[in-house]
Design a protein that fits this description.
It holds the Pfam family DHDPS. Belongs to the DapA family. One of its GO terms (molecular function) is 4-hydroxy-tetrahydrodipicolinate synthase activity. The protein has about 350 residues and is of the alpha/beta class. It has a single domain, classed as Alpha-Beta Barrel (TIM Barrel). About 45% of the residues lie in helices and about 10% in strands. It is built from 14 helices and eight strands. Strands 7-6-5-4-3-2-1-8 form an eight-stranded parallel beta sheet. Helix 2 links the parallel strand 1 and strand 2. Helix 4 runs parallel beside helix 5, helix 5 packs parallel to helix 6 and helix 9 packs antiparallel against helix 10. The chain is globular, with a radius of gyration of 19 Å.
């Protein structure tokens, strides 16, 4: 159960939602029939070792609400109170997301990242509002709103989730405590607009590492996540804290040092993101494996990672002077802790 009351969620977030969030993709047994407890516990420990204060327990990898609850319970048992846990509301329907969040609450989740299913096809703002409010009303947890072009809401408004809609949601859903602001991605318009209007009411997150550090010369950001940054080991939590604490020039020195890895990640993402609207979680898991996380197979349907992309990502880490495994890429699919 959450450590705060629903009515106090925004105050809780203002105090406790700080630092950076990783993304933890669950590990499975070799036959894909069950979760891999050792692999999951290893990944939670390593995220904390790298300095992340939160992690998103990624659910859009063909798992059930019950399996997600087990995933959450192992993560909570491993982390204790050292790591905040995001429930990922990315199941196939509103009803299933509500079922899953109730189980995750009991298992130890702290906060929700609210996604929208591919089958959700709104043509009016009222439909987006209704989905969001229904979910928020159904959980005791704090919720991070997530405007991004992935949802296709631009058919309703060019911003996807415009200021007036966000205003209504903040007024009517007191447990919305943060906004993961990616309207207009890859442009920074969303983070700038949400920060301008709502920074005094809720936590504004810029999850894009390549944008967040430069913008912190102009914005007071307390949290960044959830995003694919753990593959760069401890770099991002360290750089983010430097920027938060007035050492922005030192943070930018670190920022430029890892630019080869950032560029490799951007090039890899361009091979799938623009045309599919689906994140390649296999690629993310491979990237994390390069940094020492478990790796291992994902259930179908799962996207592939071509060898040429693997080589590009590995060399990006090498060129940045970041930690990278010497294991052959062929070891990735087995994972470090098999079961």
């Amino acid at each position: 159960m959450a450590s705060y009351k629903k009515s106090d969620a925004r105050a809780w977030a203002r105090e406790h939602l700080t630092g950076c969030s990783a993304v933890t993709i669950p590990s499975y047994s070799a036959d894909l029939k069950r979760l891999n407890e050792r692999g999951i516990r290893h990944d939670i420990e390593l995220a904390m070792e790298f300095g992340f204060r939160y992690t998103l327990l990624c659910s859009e990898v063909a798992m059930t609400p019950e399996e997600n609850a087990q995933f959450t319970a192992w993560a909570r048992d491993t982390a204790g109170d050292r790591l905040g846990l995001f429930f990922h509301a990315a199941f196939g329907t509103l009803a299933e997301n509500i079922e899953a969040v109730k189980l995750a609450e009991e298992a130890g989740a702290d906060i929700v990242l609210l996604s929208y299913p591919p089958q959700f096809w709104p043509t009016t703002e009222q439909e987006i509002y209704a989905y969001t409010k229904t979910f928020c009303d159904a959980t005791h947890l704090a919720v991070m709103l997530f405007p991004i072009p992935l949802w296709g809401f631009e058919r309703v408004h060019p911003a996807g989730m415009q200021v007036d809609l966000v205003r209504r949601l903040l007024d009517d859903c007191p447990n919305i405590v943060a906004i993961k602001s990616e309207q207009g991605f890859p442009l920074p318009a969303g983070i700038c607009e949400m920060y301008h209007h709502f920074r005094d009411e809720v936590v504004i997150s810029c999850p894009i590492e390549g944008d967040a550090i430069p913008l912190m010369s102009l914005m007071k950001l307390q949290f960044s996540g959830t995003s694919n940054t753990a593959w760069m080991s401890s770099y991002y939590p360290k750089a983010f804290e430097l920027a938060r604490n007035g050492q922005w020039e030192e943070a930018m020195a670190m920022y430029w040092k890892v630019n080869p890895a950032r560029s490799a990640n951007g090039a890899a993402a361009q091979t799938y993101a623009g045309g599919t609207g689906v994140l390649n979680r296999t690629m993310w898991k491979y990237q994390d494996w390069l940094a020492g996380f478990n790796g291992g197979p994902l259930r179908a349907p799962a996207m592939r990672v071509p060898d040429r992309i693997m080589k590009t990502l590995r060399q990006g880490l090498v060129a940045s002077g970041l930690p990278v495994t010497s294991d052959l890429d062929s070891a990735f699919m087995a994972g470090r802790f098999t079961c």
